[in-house]
Amino acid sequence: MVMATQRQLRSSAKTRALHTEDVLPLKKPRRAPASTEVDTEPTKTSSKKSKPSPKRVPSLIATTPVEGPQVLHAFPELVSGQLVQRYKRFLADVKLDDGTVVTVHCPNTGPMVGLLDQPMAPVQLSVSSNLTRKYKYTLEMISVDDVWIGVHSASANRMVETALRNGWMPDVAGPDRRYTSLQAEVKHAKGSRVDFVLESVSTVDAQDVQNIYTEVKSVTLLLPGQGNDGAAHRRAVFPDTVSTRASKHVEELIHRCAKSSTDRAAIIFLVQRGDCDSFSPSMTHDPVFAALCREASEKGVRLHAYACDLVPASRHVVLLKSLPIVHEDAGSKC
Question: Which Pfam family name is an example for this entry (predicted)?
């Protein structure tokens, strides 16, 4: 009986000890050093300060030209029709093949000289998948004398970028050089951006690196005439009206070449038609621009012209060839 009582006492003591441990205050954790504390309070910033723009990272260029058809652009869908009229610079009325007349976006702010003379000219429209867009269709091509001509001015930049990335315009780098990377929309003058900056490396000396500041111009106008040999000649020209903006771009490139020994400049004229033999800065339509182009070529700015072929059947725009550049005032090639 006494032994049972002792067992009960020992059991009660253990139970009290367990309960006592349950209610003991927890030991406070050591406070982290001040240098490792994380501030969870949000930092207040002034609403007036704008967020920094993301850094533009140059993209690499194909080390060897991509083989196969040199497709600059492939349209997901094209709709054919006839041009009724173009008005308010950005709008056009087009009669579709089913007889419906629709208003479409015209992505060319210029006068489109030589493209609007033929009544009810055949056209090709791209189709937007954006349901909230006001105009479903965009005017992309127009046919003049059975030649398809691209009228989307902004698409020239995208197509030239494709050609540069695929190594299809090696002449832009210059003799014994190749370009290795490309950066788009780079600020290089007050209130102005250049279309592309290419990094060019010498094939002889890898330490010889240059930046090529490159502007792109979309060309649509053709002037028939005669070549130096008297034969019929079809020359593409730019611009088709006075363009102070284009002249400003040329002046900026001249200044860029003059102020830096490692910077070069180039202008790429993308002729969005395949029926031309050469290209000229137009002395007829903008003598100031033509004179600046001549001055630029003499001061180190390289001028390049390329023709492309637009094929509605395949919905492709294909790079055709490089065109010789002729200065109209002197008839000399550069």
Answer: SfsA
